[in-house]
Amino acid sequence: MSDRPAATLLDGRALAAQIEANLADEVQTFTDMFKRPPRLVVVLVGDMAASASYVKSKAAAAARVGIDAEVVRVPATADTLALVALVKSIARDEHGPADGILVQLPLPAHVDTVAVLDAVPPDRDVDGFHPENAGLLSQGRARFIPCTAAGVQRMLLDAGIETAGRHAVIIGRSDIVGKPLALLLSAKGPGGDATVTLCHSRSADMAAITRQADILVAAVGRPGLVTASMVKPGAAVIDVGINRVTAPDGTSRLTGDVDFESVRGVASWITPVPGGVGPLTVAMLLANTALAAELRSRGG
Ligand code: NAP
User: Fold this and answer.
1) How far is the CA of 257 from the centre of ligand 1 (A)?
2) Per-residue pLDDT for 1 more than 60?
3) pTM of this prediction?
4) 104 with 190, same domain?
């Protein structure tokens, strides 16, 4: 047992509330000037409970800051062509002004997800998944940064956790979390300048790598993957994972990729799940939507 004090909790809900309060002012200014609020159109395909719940919390958060959010529901049987056509019709403002367009993932297995995401025009791509936005991010001139990656960086900045010259290890190399976060943390400037290592399912002796991390981010989707023995004493541990686990008595709860109870005795900072990165992801989506509306109003 270590005699280190337990890690400081990074409270994503409190930070998201602060960000929302600032955004609400920005959104009010836009609304006064253009006589309409910024508008987000979300495409929800099928009736997966987790997706429906994420969309519900995104729409509720939008309403809190004064952004108008419309959810377009589509049956799970919709095919790629139909979804591409729908996204294009939204982009022609046929569902009302659509400053931001978001397609909730995952899409059903029979759908070509890349084709549907690519149909979102890059200037309304508030998830930041379009190749043009990924390219801009990789060149250090980001427009829309994928929300979870932006949220993690914002959390580190807000907590005053130094990234410059530090070793950041990210577990998970997805296009939506791991890769963009690696780009952000290794970019020049505040919240960047880290030395970044990206781990994945083929990484050999991963614990030897994670033990070198000053900042350790887990974005995998495996409960309890990161244990205390994988963490350098004093590290900042950011848990992106969201997993629903069911106990033998049938009750279920959300948990991250980090074994919270053991790791909090070793780390200096740790995010809870829920209440850590999740609320930041939603706050960054709202920020991207406000930015999309502003860029559109300026014609570019
Ligand atoms: P993903 O696309 O499935 O990617 C998972 C990554 O983890 C892959 O790169 C995979 O490696 C790697 N991986 C799998 N098993 C591994 C292992 N045993 N050791 C090391 N790496 C391993 O997932 P994602 O979309 O990035 O999401 C990751 C997690 O974050 C999920 O739990 C998701 O629900 C959660 N999430 C949370 C938020 C939030 O707001 N908090 C937002 C988005 C996602 P390979 O590339 O080799 O397959």
Assistant:
1) 9
2) no
3) 0.97
4) no
